């Protein structure tokens, strides 16, 4: 549980960073928010896939 809390925290921080950089590139607020959320979801998906592979014994 603590590990997933850390992963969610890192994903949210990364999404915020990506969204801020996207906004600096003169994207609209909507595009920046969508891009930041998308990157956070992708990051959580990758973490989930790595966890599944590790449980299956395929390091």
Keywords:
59 residues; mainly alpha; 2 helices; elongated
Description:
The protein is mainly alpha-helical. The chain has helices at 2-24, 29-55. The model has no long low-confidence stretch (mean pLDDT 87).
Tell me briefly what this model is.
This protein has 2 helices and no strands.
Topology:
Elements: H1 2-24, H2 29-55
Helix pairs in contact: 1-2
Describe the largest sheet.
Answer: none
Give the overall pLDDT as a whole number. Answer: 87
**CA radius of gyration:** 14 Å
Helix vs. strand class? mainly alpha
| Proportion in β-strands | under 5%
Low-confidence stretches: none
Instruction: Give the strand tally.
Output: 0
SSE string: HH
End-to-end CA span: 21 Å
